[in-house]
């Protein structure tokens, strides 16, 4: 029996599968390029495994085999994601405008023809749009997945703003920039809540001034720093989505996630905190939040968390509260640097009037304006009161109308050169 | 080794740059040196030395609350040192001293691999074991799972 031979065979099977996927017809070249990168990555892994022989150290071989197996866990779903990007269920109309937007946000200082960001738009058989973050081994790729039943629903496109946020977060190395502040916040909170800390972690028996010098103490609180940073990233991504798409992001977010999306995880703020932070960001960005918005959500508590982890999460949550103003200010700075302006009420109203006439709008200034008008129309119970036959199929017709408008928006962009 | 270049001409070394991957690639290179393979490349050892320098040994005022030392990295390194043949540590300053010793050894090795490997075979074995331990600990840290999304109710 050979672990190494099994590991080699697993990689060969994966590479064979990638070769089969490459035979597909791709509507956009970026999906194909993602497969090429996966192929090269796994070929490198296989090459390393092929070099081992009977003289190789068994622990080195086993660890390389373990890393290769982990990579399969990580990348097989991505290969499936690329496969589904070829499915006609996807709203291909939004691909080009979203790619342009991604490039404007991520590469504002690069000339338009020289931008490198690539986009793969696909569908998920998993009811969450928040799946793939920036992937270190697929640099320059933004992967946006919408749950399959909604993948042709353009009203959820604002959630792509959240995904762009992850790429923006990685590009500007915000985890490295914010880590010192987060760590200092966590340590200050521990010192203030020293008795609680000692109750949660009686060992090692240390004094407050040893909190940053004892490696066993650091081991106790480092999770709080990691979780706060991940919560900061999610908060940043929500703020980016809202800064780009305005109220349309809020509506898409609540459509998909209200009243709550199941059990909480430590990597995300609680649902009530998330909505609270969206409200804070909206107020800074001058975006009107509907009066009953917060009431649409319920909190999502943990299930039976151990006391030590309850304490660690509370540290992360409190440290996040201290970071929120910084996160909102950074969001505004980075999106403004990309010269992304909010859609004005007049722009939105003009498009909305076209929708009322059941006509695709022309000369739309931005994708955000189209999507805000779409949500305005979605919430108008009397949108097509004069057209009862159309009103009976309101949601389907509205989606088609919005997709057509996005198509016109793209054609106008192309013809303008 | 394959000489393929990916679609965007991204340098191969830019990929697989996470600590777990780089550490085990360094372990492979050290093992190749011990086996006595011809023309051993020490690129990953150099990258690991740089990575540990950037994230640990060259961080200013590492003991300060607001220093750039990532506590998760410190914990991974602490556990890896205790797992491998190097002497155990329990205080941050001891960890930093040990980390500097290790990066110093990497530096000596890459400066003159032939001479170093002739004279310090046992140290290279220690370094290889440390790299494997570091790779395992770093890999486990990035897959810490209690906070993962709840699994599907009907999936096991």
Walk me through the structure.
- The complex is a heterodimer of chains A (417) and B (156).
- Chain A has 15 helices and 2 strands.
- Chain A is mostly helical and 417 residues long.
- In chain A, strands 1-2 form a two-stranded parallel ribbon.
- Chain B has 156 residues and is mainly α.
- Helices cover 60% and strands 0% of the residues of chain B.
- In chain B, α1 packs antiparallel against α6 (121-142), α3 (71-83) packs across α4 and α4 (92-111) crosses α5 (113-119).
- Chain B is globular and about 45 Å long.
- At the A-B interface, α2, α3, α6 and α8 of A face α1, α3, α4 and α6 of B.
Distance N to C terminus of chain A: 62 Å
**Kindly state the mean pLDDT of chain B as a whole number?**
85
**Whole-number radius of gyration of chain A?**
24 Å
Task: Outline the biggest β-sheet of chain B.
Answer: none
Per DSSP E runs of 2 or more residues, the count of β-strands of chain B stands at: 0
Key features of this structure:
heterodimer; A: 417 residues; mainly alpha; two-stranded parallel ribbon; 62% helix; B: 156 residues; globular; disordered N terminus
Gist of the model:
The complex is a heterodimer of chains A (417) and B (156). With 417 residues, chain A is mainly alpha-helical.
List the helices and strands and how they pair.
The complex is a heterodimer of chains A (417) and B (156).
Chain A: H1 3-21, H2 29-51, H3 58-84, H4 95-106, E1 118-124, E2 141-147, H5 160-171, H6 174-192, H7 194-200, H8 215-245, H9 247-257, H10 271-285, H11 307-337, H12 345-356, H13 367-379, H14 388-391, H15 394-416
Parallel strand pairs in A: 1-2
Helix pairs in contact in A: 1-2, 1-3, 2-3, 4-5, 5-8, 6-8, 6-11, 8-9, 8-10, 8-11, 10-11, 12-13, 13-15
Chain B: H1 19-35, H2 43-57, H3 71-83, H4 92-111, H5 113-119, H6 121-142
